[in-house]
Each structure stands twice: as structure tokens, then as C-alpha cells.
Amino acid sequence: MRRNFYCYLFLVSCFLFLSCSRKTKQYDLLEISVDTKVGESLPLSKITEEIRAIELELTNESIINPQPNKLKRIILTDDHVFLAQTEKIFVFDRNGKFIHSIGSKGQGPGEYNEIRNFAIDETNKRLFVNTFRNIICYDFTGKFLKESPKLNSLIYDINYSNDELLIIVDYLGMDPDRSKQFSRTLIYNLNDDFQVTDSCFIKLISGSTGFSGGTVDNYILSADSVVYIYYPNATSQQIPSKTFLRDTLYRYKHNQLVPDLKLKFKRDGVDSEGNLFIYLINLYRSSRYVFADYYDYSLELEDDYWYVSFNFCYDTKTGERYKMGRDRYRDDIHDIDPVIIYPFHTNPEMFYYLHTHMKPDDLEEPNPTLYIGKLKK
User: Fold this and answer.
1) pLDDT of residue 208
2) What is the pTM of this model?
3) CB 366 within 8 Å of CB 358
4) Measured between alpha carbons, how far is 134 from 121 in angstroms, rounded to an integer?
5) Residue 33, C-beta contacts closer than 8 angstroms, at least 6 positions apart
6) Residue 315's domain is classified under what CATH number?
7) Residue 323 burial by CB count (10 A; 0-12/13-18/19+): exposed, middle or buried?
8) Residue 3 has what pLDDT?
9) How many domains, the chain?
10) Which of 69, 90, 179, 353 reaches 20 to 30 Å from 293, CA-CA?
């Protein structure tokens, strides 16, 4: 039984690898070398046209937890700012005035234990919240509309594009004799009834899993009708099968993954013993810039850290590369340093970050200010 199982995995891997190889040759794949000297913080004025500040109103019902691991996603519409933390979604107007919150923590219909991420259908004024195992739908006023059944998989990201929901799911399982774990990752297309209308295989990893993502997970980004997919490895030590090009951003087109660009690390990110020492957390692009966040486990550590983290920015127009360590980005327009920027998952031509301004006479910590940047083209 075990031999048959691994024969099956081998045949599937070979088929998908050949298919992937053909697609790679069929499309132009931009390869970007990341092996450049670490520089100082990158001034945002070099890559942005403008940065707008929105002060988010502080009320008893709109207290934002400033810890980075509590923030899940911010979505900007023509009229609203939606901000999701692990336990609540806040709605502000475009001037930062608090309107209301959406949903509540609990076990009943329309309630959640923890928010993993969310997406919106702006045309029909609907908001979709995904926990780890189901999806809950509200209207923009916060009224509960419906929810999906519990899935037997983990949902890691969600987006609404081209009039349908897209989710990335991860199935964890055991081989037939239960001697080894495996993780199978797919993209699902869902209709309004949360039924799967199509799917696309991403990758299969054998061995222990232990997925670890970034502070803000943006694995499905859409720009107009174009959808980009990047999904990291389960752990830094795992090297996925060759059915999935590592450190590669894909376009999701006609329910197929088409390689768009690939980052090239030293020794392809693999050490002499075959272990992966580069862990790429996020990879995304605008029409001009490519951004990446990654850990390098091969470097010597400071302050008891056993890895070093980097931000990377590549200008496709000029060919300039910026590699930053702990200094990150610097908002030289508002004199704030350092900052970590995140793309709007439905418009990667824009980014955001939060910063809390404490004044000497403040008796309590105010809500952070939302800074919204527009990238150069």
C-alpha cells in the first residue's frame, strides 16, 4: 500500500513538473537577482507619487490594537476604510470617522473565533470574512447574510475578483500507513453559495508541515482583472516538489498558474546539505515595482535571533534593486522611520502602513494614523 502511494505521488509530480516546465518555456519569465548589498532604509519618495494620512477616530468601540500580529488586512473603497484585526472589523469613512464594527466573537451564526482575513464585493456591498475553516458574509452595514459550512481544510487567504470568490486552502493528511504527513495546497473558485466551481492545484509537500506566514498575508492579489498568486513554503526547511517553481510569482489565468517572475537567491536558497535557508514570506508586484519580504536562515544572528529578515524592492523601469534589513522603508515625506508597507490586495499600485503618534499631553494611546501611498508608474 505504501509503495503504491509513493508511486502515485511520483507519477503526479512528474506529470505536473513536465506541465509546469512547458508553461515556463511558453511564457517569458522575468528573473530578478536578489543578491545585492544590504543598504539603508529606502525613502518612500523614491517610489511614490504621494502619501496621504488618515487619522482613524478613537472611540470606546473602535480601539485598534497596535500590535502588528493583530492586524489582518485593510481594504479601501470609494467611501470606506475597512480594517480587520483578529477579533473585529472596523469601518471608517474616508476621513477616518468611525462608523461601526462588523461581526462579533462567538460560536453562533455570523460569529467567529478568529478572523484570518477578509475580502469585499464593492458592487453588491458585501464583505466576506474567512476564519480558518469557513466563510461568513455580511453586508456593509454589518448585517449577517450567510455563511459556508465548515471545511475540512485550512483557509489561508481570500479575495473577490471577476465576480467570484477565490480562496487558498491547505489540506493536511497522512499517507495510507500513517507514517508520514503531507500538505496539499489548492486554489478554489467559489460561487455565491460557497460551492466550488473550479480549482487549481498549487503544490504537494511531503513531511511535517508547520506552516508559518507573515504578519499580513497577501497571497492572492488582483489588479483590475489580473490575479496574482504567491504562496510560501510550509517551513523554511522544506523544499517543495518540482511541480511548483519556488520563489515565483504566478498569474492565475483561466484556472491555471502561469509563471510571471522569479527571484534568484544565492545557491538558489539551498545549502550544501539540501536544506532551504531562504524563506520567502510575501512576493507581489505593481506595474513597475516588485516587492518581497523574506528570512535568511544562513546568516549569523544578533540579539538571540536565529534568522535575519529583509525587505526587497526592484524597479523594473530602471533596474535598481533595494535590499533593506531592519531599517526597512523610511517615510521621508512625513519623517517617519522605519515603516513596513503592505499592498492593498485589490490594488497593488497602492500601499499602506499604520503609525501611532503619541503627544506629550496624551493621557491614553490614540488610534494609529493610516498612511496610504500611491506608487509611481
Assistant:
1) 47
2) 0.86
3) yes
4) 17
5) 264, 321
6) 2.120.10.30
7) middle
8) 39
9) 1
10) 90
The pLDDT score that the predictor gives to residue 301 is 54
Quick check: 255 and 200 in contact, CB under 8 A?
A: yes
Please state the length of the chain: 377
User: In terms of Cα–Cα distance, which of 169, 150, 278 is closest to 219?
Assistant: 169
pLDDT at position 262? 95
Are the C-beta atoms of 336 and 324 separated by less than 8 Å?
Answer: no
Note whether 69 and 356 are within 8 A (CB): no
Please name the helix (run of DSSP H) or strand (run of DSSP E) that holds residue 21, with its range, or none.
helix 2-26
Looking at residue 333, what is its pLDDT? 96
Angstrom distances, CA of residue 182 to CA of 9, 238, 239: 11, 11, 13
Tabulate helix, strand, coil % of the chain (nearest 5): 10, 45, 45
Q: What is the mean pLDDT, run by run of 10 residues, along the chain of 377 residues?
A: 37 40 56 89 96 96 86 94 94 97 86 91 95 94 94 91 92 72 87 93 66 70 91 59 77 92 89 82 95 85 63 96 90 94 94 90 87 97
Run of H or E including 10:
helix 2-26
Look up cell 467570484; give the residue. Answer: 164
pLDDT value at position 299? 74
Q: What is the DSSP letter of 374?
A: E
The predicted structure's pLDDT at residue 358: 84
DSSP letter string over 49-89?
EEEEEEEPPP-TT-PPP--GGGEEEEEE-SSEEEEEESS-E
Query: What gap in Å lies between CA 159 and CA 296, rounded to an integer?
Result: 29
Enumerate the β-bridge partners of residue 248.
262
